[in-house]
Amino acid sequence: MEFIDTLSNALKPFPAVVSHVQVETALEPDMGENVIDTSLDSRLKDSLISLGITRLYKFQEDAINAIIRGENVLIMSGTGTGKTEAFLVPLIELTLRKGEKSVILYPTKALARDQLDRITKIAEPTGISVAVLDGDVSAKEREKIYEKPPDILITNPDMLHLGLSLSYKFRDIIRGSDHFVFDEIHAYEGVLGSHIRMICERLKEFTNNINVISSSATIGATPYMFQELFGVPGKIIQGIPRRKGMAIHALVDSKSMSRWTLSAFIAAKAIKEGLKTLVFVDSQQMAEVTAKIADRFGVNMAVHRAGLIPKERIRVEKELKSGMIMGIVATPTLELGIDIGDLDVVIMAENPPSYPKYVQRAGRSGRRNKIGYVITVMGDDPIDSYFLRNPKEFFSRKLTPIPFDTSNLEVIKVHVGAYLIEKGKVKISDLPPLWAKAAKELDKEGKVTITGNYLIANRKTLDFVKNSSLRNTGPIVRIYDNEKKIGERELPIALYDLYPNAVYLVSKRTYIVEKLDLKSFRAQVKRSTDVSYYTKPLYDVELVEFNELDKRKVYGLPVAYGETKVKISVKGYVIKSFYENEKHENKTEFDDPLQFTYTTKGLIIKHPVLDGFGLVDSMEAYHATEHVLISAGRVVAGASMTDLSGMSYPSGHVIIYDSVVGGSGVSKLMYSRLEDAYEIALDIVGKCDCEDGCPKCIYSPYCGNNNKVLSRRKSFKLIQEVIKGNNTSDERIWGNSVS
C-alpha cells in the first residue's frame, strides 16, 4: 500500500482522488502429481526437474492427459500459472512416443520469438527440435527448416495464412503436422478472430478434423465459443482465474481533470520513486499525447504502439527490459506476454474496453512474486461514472467471450483467394455456402474466374492474396512525410485521423495533415513545430442499406440484426487543447466533405414516440439513447470506445453497428444482450446529477456533431418506458419511415 499512500498525498493539490482500493491475492492452483511419478518419458521428466518443475498443477495434469488422448482443449488459467507447460509437455511427449509434429501459433511475431527461449529450454534436452518460421527468417535459414522440419514449429497466423497458399514447402510442413496450438486467444477478437476461423477451415479443408489446443488467461469461454472460433468441438480445462501473488488495485477519480495529464503525472511520480511503469491507452494518438505530457513532469517515457516501424518497437522493449528507460506508454500492443522485464506499476489512462482486457493488462505488473500496483484513471464518461458509483461491481464482473463474426464476407473473400492459390482450381459446389457467395463476389471484382462449377485462379488472384492482411478488412491508408513512409491507418478509422489540417502524432513528433487521397489511399503530412492542441473531426453517418439476418423483441420493441451499409462524411473539425477543457472551440468546415461507404454488421431498434414529445424532443431522446446504449456496450459486449458506432433518426430508429468493414462480432453480442444494455443505460441517465447532459452520462468524445441535440432527461423517460415492456411499435423495423 506504500505507493498508494504516496500517490494519495501527491494528488492533494489536484481535484483528483484515489476513490477505491482493492487488494487482490491469489493462491497457488490445486496441486497434481509429482513429475517423477507421472508416466511421462524419462527424458522429459529430467528436463522439467532440471528447470525446477518438480510437481504439476492439477489443471496441467488434466490438460496433459486430455491432449495425449487427442482431445481438443482450451486451457484457462491466470497469468504466470504455467499454461505454456500445460500444452508443451504433452506435445513433447507425443513426439517422443509417436513422432508426432506440432505447430504453435502466437498472435504476433514478437511474441512468438519471445516464447522461443522458454519452449527451447524444456524441449531441447529431450532431443526435440524447435524452430521459428516467420516473415523475418532469412531465405537461407528458411531452406534449412524446409530440408529438416522441426518437431515443433513456432509461427503466427499471418505466416500460416500466406505460407499455406504461396509456399509448397511450408505447406508440406503444415499439412504434415498433427497438432495446432493457438496461444493467447484473447487476442483473437473481432476481425482477427474471424480470420482464425477461416484459417482453421482451410486446415480442415472443410471436412477433416484437426487437433486444436488453445490457451488464454482472460476470457469468458464456453465450448460453444470454442466451436465457433475453431470449427471443431472442444473442452475447457480450468486452472485459477487470476494470476498468483498480490496486486493492489486503485481507482482514481479524475474529477474532470485531463486523464492524459493525470496519467502522465502518476507515471512520473512512480518513476521518480524508482518503480518501473507502464501506462496503457487505447488510442495511438493519445499514447503520443500522454508521453509528451510526461516530459513536462520531468520524465522521459517511450511510446509503444501499432503503426510504428518494427525496429523502433523492438528498441523500446529492450530499453525497458534493460532498465535504460523506466517508463513506457503503450496501446494494447503490450497486452500480450512479450517479456519486457519486471513491472512495478501499470497505469490505465482509460478504463479498458472490457474486463478481460483489464485483467490482462493488470497481470503485467508485480510478476515474479512482486507486489504489483494497478491504477485505473476513471474519467467523466458514462461507464466510468457508473463504476465509481458501483466500485465493487467493477472488480466482480464476469469475463466476457471474445467477439468475432464468422460471416464477414470481406474476411472470407481473402481465404477463398488463398485456398484457390493453394489448390489451383476448386469446385464451387464443394465450398460452404458463404465461401461460394464470397467466390461469386470475387468473380465480379475480377479477382478470380468462375467457369461452370469451377473456381479458377487468374492473374489478379495472386496479387489479391499477397496484399491481404489478417489484421484489418478496410483499405489501408499509407502516411507519408514527403516520400518517407511514417505509418499507416485502416479505413474507416483513417478518415477520422487524417483529414486535412488534422494533427497527427508519431513517436512524439507532430505532423499536420496536408492531403488525404481516398483513391490512392495516401495521406500527405508535414512535420510541424510543437503544438498545444489536437483536432477532432465533425462528421455525419447515413444508413444506406440494411439486410436483415435475424430479428427479435426486446421489451416488446422490434430489433433486427443484419448487414449494414453506411456512408461517413467528414465535414470539418474542431480544435481542442491538450491541457485545458475549453468552452469555446475553433470550428472549421470543409467545402467538400470526405466520404467513405462500407458494409458492416449492426442492429436496428425501433423506439416508440412518447406522448407529449415533439420532433425536437424525440430527436434529443433518441440521439442520447444511442450514445448511452453504445456506452453500455462496453460492459455487456466488451466493446472498446471505438468498436461500435451509431446513428439515430426522428422516427425512433437507433442503429448501432461495428466500426470495421464487414463486421467484428461486437454488435452481434450487443444484440443478444440488449436487455442488459438498457438496464445499465437506465442507471447512467437516471443517476447522473447534471442538468440535462454531460460527459458523465450522454456526451461522447466520438460524436460526429459534437454532442448537439441531446437530452439526458428525455432519454431517461424513453428508456423507462422501454423497460416497462408496454411497447407496440410497428413490426416493420426498417423502411421508408426512418427519414
From TrEMBL:
PROSITE patterns documented for this protein: HELICASE_ATP_BIND_1, HELICASE_CTER
Alphabetic keyword roster: ATP-binding, Helicase, Hydrolase, Nucleotide-binding
Domain Helicase C-terminal: residue ranges: 261-410
Pfam family, one: Helicase_C
Cross-referenced InterPro entries: DEAD/DEAH_box_helicase_dom, Helicase_ATP-bd, Helicase_C-like, MZB, P-loop_NTPase
Entry's Gene Ontology molecular function annotations: 3'-5' DNA helicase activity; ATP binding; nucleic acid binding
One GO-annotated biological process of the protein: nucleotide-excision repair
Name recorded for this polypeptide: DEAD/DEAH box helicase
Native source species: Candidatus Acidianus copahuensis
